[in-house]
Amino acid sequence: MVISNRPLKFIMAALVAGLSFASYANPTQDTVHHDVEVADVENVSVHVDEHGAALDVKTKNKQHILHHVKDSHDFTFFSDEAEGKHYGFPLPVILWDNGLKVFSSAKFHHGEEVAEVDGNYYVLNHHDGKIYKTDASGKLNYEGEGHEHPTNAKPLDFSITKSVLMIMVTALLMFIIFSGLAKTYPKNGGIATGFGRFFEPLVIYIRDEIAIPNIGEKHYKKYMSYLLTIFFFIWFLNIFGLTPLGVNVTGNFTVTAALAILTYLITTFTANKNYWAHIFWMPGVPWPMRIILAPIELLGTIIKPFSLMIRLYANIFAGHIVLMSIIALMFVFKNWIGSTLSFGLAFVLSILEILVALLQAYIFTMLSALYFGAANEEHHHEEHHEGAHH
Description:
The chain is mainly alpha-helical. It contains ten helices and eight strands. The radius of gyration is 25 Å and the shape is globular.
């Protein structure tokens, strides 16, 4: 991997410039009242009453943290627990159940009521945040003692959730910023103006310090659009996740999996014959060993994007959990010493998370460029043979 001293200095400069775009996370902002399952956290022990309401402060904190990292079918800015009111806006629910069913998530009333659409009844499950088909009573049927996974029919869900909405917002924001940046060049003799001046050095940095050194002068141009898109897409979403909006898009396993699959597909379908030759029939290796190593090398092509997926998901997801857990300690201690220490630690960790937001975008882009470079590496066997004769 080619890394010079200049990229590290540039990242720090970009970090300082990006501080104005972020604020630290506020766990009390995202309080849609649905119990959820995220990764391995569905087994967290909580104490609730018969209506699912938390009975103590620690349980409320756990619920807030779980709700924060989970996707939802509405966008809630904040809630008034005393009056049971939620302030935000509903999102469109799009289901396929013997035909297309489109309606507003407001029909669920934050999971408290059954939604009736064309004579069909649907309920938003508190435990996993998924939509199930029921009768008019909204009763869910369970198997076993856990009561976690209903056996009711589950329609195909193509809804515009909170995470999908933020992906659309980020895509629109990127289109506006970079189309505006491109338009300034012919008007000002190749010089960026306005807000685009902040992003132009980042574009040049990705080209000169990531794409060219790792892919090469000959092939880097065909990958630049993807590398630029993936860098700013991940960075913007990471920054949005640190705002009081409470969106955890890049901490969503399916989102990071989709990004990793894109890198894998581009690497696979743009690789040259030398790349595949070194996987299936390595030169200079005895043929019995080639038969043994070929499956291992082929598996390695899958493990590489898998590591991309896990690295981004785990870092962002864990960062949200740790940060909100520290903030939640203020409500547990309820004294000026403990609350002050928790706030101070949360503030320092928030600053670190801003660095992590940029660093994870950089790492994903850098490793993708490395994979693209390996797929286009050319070997001059003639030169090796001539060197051997000399």
